[in-house]
């Protein structure tokens, strides 16, 4: 069963012995909220935050060049992108480009709390995307009649 929803915000739930990071999600209607029970695990699909065009240091974690020994402006450069022999850039080379905005699937996210009147559910941990982004919960166990 699939349940569409909208990410509202992240917050914390304070327990007697610990603090739990949770995400509030608003579901489409009351019946879908009633079909969920606290304690079950669901698979959540969302779209990650877009970061725009990023260089290789941020996008792929490259170390950059040395700060000294005659270097002027090579601090965050990718370095060599290939050898002389093939006379082309090999496919799959890590380069600068657009980062984020990808479909991300998280499995085993626990439902902490369900509020059918407000059509809100509380999921344990972070969920991909900005506040207000559409998410989808899949592989939700069917409610027992």
Automatic annotation (TrEMBL):
One of its GO terms (molecular function) is structural constituent of ribosome. It comes from the Bacteria. The keyword Iron-sulfur does not apply. The keyword RNA-binding applies. One of its GO terms (biological process) is translation. Keywords: Ribonucleoprotein, Ribosomal protein, RNA-binding, rRNA-binding. Belongs to the universal ribosomal protein uL3 family. This is Large ribosomal subunit protein uL3. The gene is rplC.
